[in-house]
Amino acid sequence: MLKKVILPFNLTLRKVISTSKKPKGNFYFYWGYNRASYAKSEIHLKGPDYDFILSDVKARDMPEEFSSVYFDINKLTIPQFNFRVGYHLSDKYALAVGWDHMKYQTRSGQPAIITGRIDASASPTYAGYYNQYEIIMDEDNLVKMEHSDGFNVINLNIERTDFLYTTKDQNFALGIISGAGAGIAFPWTNSSIFGQKNDDRPKISGMGAHIYGAAQATVFKRFFLRLTLQGGFENMWAIATVPRGDHSAHAEQTIFYYQRSLVLGYNFRLFDKN
Questions:
Q1: How far apart are CA 239 and CA 250, in angstroms?
Q2: What's the sign of the alpha-carbon dihedral 135, 136, 137, 140?
Q3: 209-228 core/surface letters (b: 16 or more CB in 10 A; e: else)
Q4: Which of 39, 40, 98, 234 is the most buried (most CB within 10 A)?
Q5: Could you please report the per-residue DSSP string of 79-136?
Q6: Hey, what CATH topology would domain 24-33+62-104+147-268 get?
Q7: DSSP secondary structure of 1-15
Q8: The predicted structure's pLDDT at residue 231
Q9: Radius of gyration of the chain from its Cα atoms, rounded to whole angstroms
Q10: CB burial class (10 A; 0-12, 13-18, 19+) of residue 38?
């Protein structure tokens, strides 16, 4: 006969997970990947010999081509990913902390609107005073703004689960997740201003908020697949544009984004139910 297996925290196998429709007390974590779209934005660049705003700037995300990079444990953080750990406060509500790793890159060659001042000591080519003047974005000589490793947001979320369908044995369930959260932006920025590159480093730069909705399928009460649509913004007032230790210049930017993600998750329990 099989003997009863004793797990850490005084758990038994039958108590590791509650029913699909009674998740109170469960923890969960998930990992998956995202694509992001960005609204036009303003980039305000400030330095000792320039102070100007670029408006109507378009940007794109930077997805990795599907390859072994998605399966190599040493390279999992290279693609655009989402990671989250949550705890079900009740059967409907959960609190979760996560890391959204998007990527952001301005498009060279696009028209933008410039307003402000550029001194000849900063750039003889672009020196002058501008007032709503159309200019062409040139990443080699004017400005490149690239949060390529990446546009990172550490976030805290509150979410609600509503089950639409559950089988009698509770081994399959469909649900809708709705939630909202706020986060700290710490982009790993690879910028270039008038051909001068920074040293490509992460920096806490601002804060933001988001809302999201998701469809979730749960199997065997433990594993779930979640498809999420999320919209939000990050207001960044301290973007790194010069090497570490140089505080003479920085950039300010508010980025509005729309994110789609697909993640695989696991439900588990650390403590016995009362």
A1: 6
A2: negative
A3: ebebebebebeebbebebeb
A4: 234
A5: S-EEEEEEEESSSSEEEEEEEEEEEEEEPTT-EEEEEEEE-TTT-TTT-EEEEEEEEE
A6: Porin (2.40.160)
A7: -PPPPPBGGGB-GGG
A8: 98
A9: 23
A10: buried
CB atoms within 10 A of CB 246: 12
Contact at 8 Å (CB) between 208 and 183?
A: yes
Q: Is the peptide bond before 150 cis (omega within 30 degrees of 0)?
A: yes
CA distances from 217 to 164, 171, 177, 192, 262 (A): 10, 10, 11, 44, 12
Q: Which residue ranges in the chain fall short of pLDDT 70? A: 1-21, 272-274
Residue with tokens 């009740």: 90
Q: Residue 1: what pLDDT?
A: 45
Helix H or strand E segment including 63: none
Whole-angstrom distance, CA of residue 135 vs CA of residue 133:
6
Q: In this structure, what is the dihedral angle of CA atoms 84, 85, 90, 93, given to the nearest 10 degrees?
A: -20
Amino acid 92: pLDDT:
93
The count of other CB atoms within 10 Å of the CB of residue 207 is: 16
Do strands 27-38 and 250-268 pair parallel, antiparallel, or not at all (unpaired)? antiparallel
In the chain, what are the domain boundaries?
A: 24-33+62-104+147-268
